[in-house]
Structures are given as structure tokens and as C-alpha cells.
Amino acid sequence: MNTVNIPCFLLAAGRGERMRPLTDSLPKPLLSIQGKSLLAWHLQALAIAKIQDVVINHAWLGEKIEAALGNGEHFGLHIQYSPEGNALETAGGICKALPIIAPEDYFLVINGDVFSPNLPISQLVDTIHKMRKDVSNPLAHLLMVPNPVQHPEGDFYLQDSTVSNTEFSGAEKLTFSGIGIYHKDLFKDLEFGAPAKLAPLLIQAMGQNKVTGEKYLGPWHDVGTPQRLQELNATY
Questions:
Q1: Which residues, in sequence order, are CB contacts of 21 under 8 Å at separation 6+?
Q2: Nucleotidyl transferase domain: which residues (predicted)?
């Protein structure tokens, strides 16, 4: 199998407070839909897209994630882990894991608690190849989705491939899916091992016209509550 030399980072360090009591004894990304954990859905999609190198961060009950997934051999992947004593938020977790991810430039990041079967990872790989040729040197590319019921106000504005934090003519306000492509330089000013949120970094990059995006209309779900998990198990 010809592999794709683009690493992927899966975010799995959250406590999952809204999913309690299910997450009292199990990390949220190991919750299952149709007998397959949320992380396993992502890993199988990555393997199909021929991405081989995966790094997963964890904090709460992280040993259970490592026990469940091992070194990734079962998926045809090479999995490494970035443990966090206390969860470092999204950007802080990425910064701490960067030496393990070891990206040449761009890498893929996926939230471990979203469910998106048929995720177009091969299309995102093609996007990375285009970003490498883009003379504007974008720092991020975000997969945006229509605003779900639980998040009607959305996150960022999208028109064509431009993403902005401020409204502009003709732009549609959408929700960030938790799936994105980032350049390692986006995190260069962060303090290693310190908590840091992703949104301020993205907003700063948007101010420099360094963030692109696309609207995704395929299946995507934020698995945020036990009821939503139950509904997804009944639907799929």
C-alpha cells in the first residue's frame, strides 16, 4: 500500500463532562456507535485514505485509549501517543505533540469526539498538496458545516474559500467541524506544555488572510450528550 506522508493528530484529551455518567469510566472518544468507537471510525477512514502516521493525545483515562488501540497495527496504522497530565486545550495539546507528529509542514487534526462517517480525508490530502503550492502560505484550512441545532450561532464566516471571524458581504456563518489542516508555524509562539486555546490562533491568522476553508455537507455530528449518542446509534 502506498502511504501518504502526511501525519494526523486526533484530539482525545477532553473530560467529556456533558457525557457523564458514560464518561466516568470511559474516555469520551471510546464511546461507540454501532459497536465501533468514535476513534476507531476515524482510524479506519485514515487507513482507507492511506495516511499511516497518527498521534493521539489523552488525559482522562488515557491508559484505556492506549489499551484499546495499541500501536495501530490492527488498523494498518502507526499510532503514537501524547499523554497530558492535565488537558492542555486544543492548541496546547497540539503544541506539546508537535515533536511526535513531526510534520514537514501541514498536518491533519480531527476532534476525537465528532462522528463523521464517509469523512473525505483523501479530499483533504489533495487540499494539503494545493496549500503547499499556494504562494500566500496559508496557516490553516477548516472544514465548516451547517450550524447544528445545539450551536445555531455558528463560529466563522465563509465565502468561496475565505474564512473570517468578522462578517463580510456574501459570507455565510458556519460551524467549525473540529476537522482542520494546520501548518506547524501556526503554533510556533506557544509555550510548550502550557494550556492554549485554538480559536485565538485561528482568529489572528484570519486577520492576516491566512485561513481558508470549505463547506462540508456530508454526515457530521458533535457527539455532545448521551441522548445524541443514543440517537446516532438508533440512526446508523
A1: none
A2: 10-133
